[in-house]
Specification:
Lipocalin, 9 strands
């Protein structure tokens, strides 16, 4: 089932976007920056993540509610654990097409595109839990 979702997610991307990059390379682009994530190919806002460091983030969902996240590299995956979802992992495979970053959720096959990278902090309607 996971392999089928992964295959479907990769097929949803244009062929040139299937260049896998190491999680560390993704973190090189994200560290100290704020990334906007949108569903691919529809472009719906998923959320905005401020990478406070290579190991800590603030995730602002589309509704502007926020949570702190812990970032871990596990083999070829970049995994996030958020303080408002104890025990739940959100892991990505990281991809790039030209200078555009993408992430693929292996469990669901969902693909998200990084549509913007800025130095602006996230805006939250609530304070993160910790």
């Amino acid at each position: 089932m996971i392999r089928a979702a992964l295959l479907l997610g990769l097929l949803a991307l244009p062929a040139a976007a299937q260049e896998r990059i190491a999680p560390g390379e993704f973190l090189d682009a994200a560290d100290g920056r704020t990334l906007t994530f949108r569903t691919y190919p529809t472009g719906e806002l998923v959320g905005i993540e401020e990478f406070l460091s290579r190991t800590r983030t603030v995730w602002a969902r589309a509704d502007r509610s926020c949570a702190y996240g812990r970032v871990e590299v596990r083999d070829e995956r970049l995994c996030f654990l958020y303080d408002d979802e104890p025990g739940v992992e959100h892991c990505w495979l990281t991809l790039r097409r030209d200078t555009t970053l993408f992430v693929l959720m292996p469990r669901t096959g969902e693909v998200q595109q990084v549509s913007d990278i800025t130095d602006k902090p996230v805006v939250c309607t609530n304070a993160p839990l910790s």
